Amino acid sequence: MKRRWAILAACFGVLGLGVLGVGGFGFAGAAQAQDGGRVALQLREQVNQGTVGIVAGGVSGTYIRIAADLADVLDREDQTLRVLAILGKGSVQNITDVLYLKGVDVAIVQSDVLRFMENTRTHPTIHERIRYITKLYNEEFHLLAGADISGVEDLAGRKVNFDVKGSGTFMTATTVFESLGIDVEPTHFDQALALEKLKAGEIDALVYVAGKPARLFADVGGDSALHFVPIPPSPALLETYLPGRLRHEDYPALIGDGDAVPTIAVGAVMAVYNWDAQHPRYEKTATFVRGFFDNIAAFRQPPRHPKWQDVNLGAEVPGWRRFAPAEDWLNANRSEPAATEGQ
Prior knowledge:
Blueprint: H1 2-49, E1 51-55, H2 62-74, E2 82-86, H3 91-100, E3 106-110, H4 113-120, H5 126-129, E4 130-145, E5 159-161, H6 168-180, E6 185-187, H7 191-199, E7 205-210, E8 227-228, H8 235-238, E9 242-247, E10 260-273, H9 280-294, H10 296-299, H11 324-332
Parallel strand pairs: 1-2, 1-3, 5-6, 5-7
Antiparallel strand pairs: 3-10, 4-7, 4-8, 4-10, 9-10
């Protein structure tokens, strides 16, 4: 009997130690979980504090390549500044994203978007809520058509793709054809699909507003019978747009050596929400502005997009007001003369 009690006592002792061990492990596990949660919270704050989202354009356009260049040059290893390049759906949607979409701080848009939104009352108080950081470059109006179209007037009553509704191309194409008094049948396919439909003869032309050289036309060869249609810069168009040229150097497979196609252009600008100076996102965006402006020389070197050569940080954009941190940097580093949008 005594031996049986001894065995039971030993078993309860082991069980007690096991319970204590499990309890001790539980306390240690809880402490480790608490520490892990604290580290995760700190990491989340660190990652988000320096991250700036830039909504740009489609995969075949210039905007997204500009945004990718910004990420390549400005991203820091300590994550105090990190740029996220985001595919966008055009100037109108990009402005809406800056106003309302979480994680979007900056947008690349066409300079005529504010006037378009004001006229259509898309965002009635847009001039108070949006500022610009800098003008980037001019975007050219590309009108690609088949061999039977020699001039823009030949497109009257024909199918012309204006890109998806709400895009910058849609906005500008609508304005241009209305200004020219040419009534066409607009279609609204994305650019890649529109190019295939143009090759198949399902539409007669496509419009694409993008900085040259646009990647969309990289695989369009001279044997395809497609060509760029000239857009003479009429007085009506020059009220809003700038004269431009597409050259052989821009599209060697579509334009003959030494030749050029007249067209029009619109400015591309970097837009930002007009944050109050006390708001945390104001300082985050200001850090991006300073990093961008301080490193402007790096963007003008290969392998960056050729359009960086056109960027003048001091260029002014009519109808827009500049973001205060950008204005402060320019005042402190006034080496680039102020210019109008046409420069």
